[in-house]
Amino acid sequence: MSPAALETAARPLLGRCHTPKTGPITRHAQAKPETDQSVWDLTGCAVKILLVGHGYVGSYLLPVLVQAGLDVSVCDQNVDRLAGVPNAMRCRYQELTVSDLADFNVILWFAGHSSVPMSLGDPDGALANNCLDLLHFARRKRLDARLIYASTASVYSVMMSENGIAPPALDESETRLDPVNPYDCSKVSMDALARCFANAITGIRLGTVCGMSPYLRPELIFNAMNIAAMRDGCVQVRNRRSYRNILFLEDLAHYVLRLIELRDDLPPILNTGSLNISIGQLADSIAAFHGVPVIDHGNATTYSFQMNCQKIQSLCGAAPAISMAERCERFSQSYRPELKAAS
User: 2: pLDDT confidence band, cut at 50, 70 and 90?
Assistant: First the structure.
């Protein structure tokens, strides 16, 4: 690790408040959950967050966390992505030591091999990054520090039905244990191992994440359809009868903020998504907003999944309702072809 990174990591947590039980200390609650959950209400106490990964998700979350009044340090191995980022730790998260992590109350990990194609191209790296290295990292944090890491909803995948029947919306207890690619295998393995070999750790099974971010992923389904509508004057679609759970970045931020502030121990796994929808319905909605046609390319062998997200909604309160048209409007107004792509 560079001397600058070590100096950043070693700064004392001034004014840190000691908590009587496992759990983080954070800001005031904003959205009220459906159930009666106790939250930290420690005005004036310092909150120390480590955000691991400043790519597509991390670069969106960072300003949200700062605006919420949280003291955030960011770890990323990509020096260019950390340009202008305060409290930057320019290193691989695997290099952080027990001493480096000692002052952090909450760690948010969004630094994995984040797609099936990436994991197929580097299966050994996917196993190391999404599971083995992450598990060792979790065991170096403070015992009472909360670690929230990105898992995936694709562990619920089944093959797309030829007759268009939607797959069941599965809850956290209905994990499929027959992964067919390195991405799903590395993720479900971490979910299982963390229960026995780590403490105060929660995997959030993310739906297909989408929306505008400083480091955009243009290939993600909602993003790709909107970009095609604006650039090509049409929405391209394949496998209309396949289903996905979609997770918009603003909804992810809502849940992350709430999970940070909850005082009680969190469940080991939480399904985290915005809505279940077929690819065809998504394409039709986006095309209708832009006033362009849908070009149907038929079907190919693919997967399909839906999630039941009642548990996280009960814990955190549902994210604010936003129409698909408004989400398309926000994306369209913010999109620029020259935006940097997340690697």
Answer: very low
Amino acid at 61: L
Query: Domain-by-domain residue ranges, the chain?
Result: 3-209+247-274+307-319
CB 155 within 8 Å of CB 188: yes
What is the DSSP secondary structure assignment for residue 268, as one 8-state letter?
Answer: S
Cα distances (angstroms) measured from residue 259 to each of 29, 31, 43, 146, 330: 10, 12, 18, 10, 25
Tokens 């067919």 sit on residue: 180
The owner of tokens 């499929």 is 176
Buried-state track 295-318, b at ≥16 Cβ within 10 A, e below 16:
eeeeeeeebbbbbbbebbbebbbb
Radius of gyration of the chain (CA): 20
Spatial separation of the C-alpha atoms in residues 71 and 335, rounded to whole Å:
29
Give 96's Cβ-side CA count (13 Å radius).
34
21: exposed, middle or buried (Cβ count in 10 Å: 0-12, 13-18, 19+): exposed
Decide: 204 and 262 in contact? Cβ < 8 Å.
no
The answer to whether 18 and 142 have CB atoms below 8 angstroms apart is: no
- Rounded distance between C-alpha atoms, residue 217 and residue 339, angstroms: 10
Give the 3-state secondary structure of residue 99: helix
210-264 pLDDT tens trace: 999 999 999 999 999 999 999 999 999 999 999 999 999 999 999 999 999 998 9
φ, ψ for residue 272, nearest 5 deg: -135, 105
Instruction: Return d(Cα 319, Cα 27) in angstroms, integer.
Output: 18
Q: For the domain made up of 3-209+247-274+307-319, give the CATH fold.
A: Rossmann fold (3.40.50)
Largest separation between any pair of C-alpha atoms in the chain:
60
